[in-house]
Amino acid sequence: MNRREPSSNSFAIAGPARWRVALAVALFVFAGPMAAEAASPAEMISSFRHQHGEGKVTTDPALNRIAQEQAGAMAARDRMDHAVSKPFADRVANLNAERAAENLAQGDATFAKALDQWIGSYGHRSNLLMHEGTRVGIASARSKSGEIYWAMVIAGPEPERRGSAKGAKGKDKPCRLMLNDTCL
After folding, report:
1. What is the CA angle 11-12-15, rounded to 5?
2. Exposed end of the chain (fewer CB within 10 Å): N or C?
3. Alpha carbon 56 to chain centroid distance?
4. For residue 94, is pLDDT > 90?
5. Under a CB-based contact definition with an 8 Å cutoff, are residues 113 and 157 in contact?
């Protein structure tokens, strides 16, 4: 029997539509992985958070700096440790954030793999889903031995700025600068 019958796992397309389907399949196969890799770490975290009812996060330069310092310190010592240079609380003390948390990973070649590892760990997953989380910083560094170290810092919003300062004529004006919860 030379006639080919479609199986339950395939379908037959005849005529000019065949090349369109082939093109669509090729684009899906080849562009799918590239599109997944093109997503930024903040977008990947936001996608995970969205799936679990939490809001998106945006990349924050101050958090990126803190994460980069941590990843660099771990790579320099070839040791994964939250206090490798100084305690986390000291590193985020000047953030002016209501909450902050940190996830670390070692040995994952890509951020996607580090994220998968964190998602599979209860404590790390809780940090990713921190309800107050609105901004994030992510960095990696490679040690002399070739080991990759990842650091992610997630923080909640800045505290609400309340109060006012007196203007030149004694009138209230809105805060322009908040320093240690004091309106200047």
Report:
1. 145
2. N
3. 10
4. no
5. no
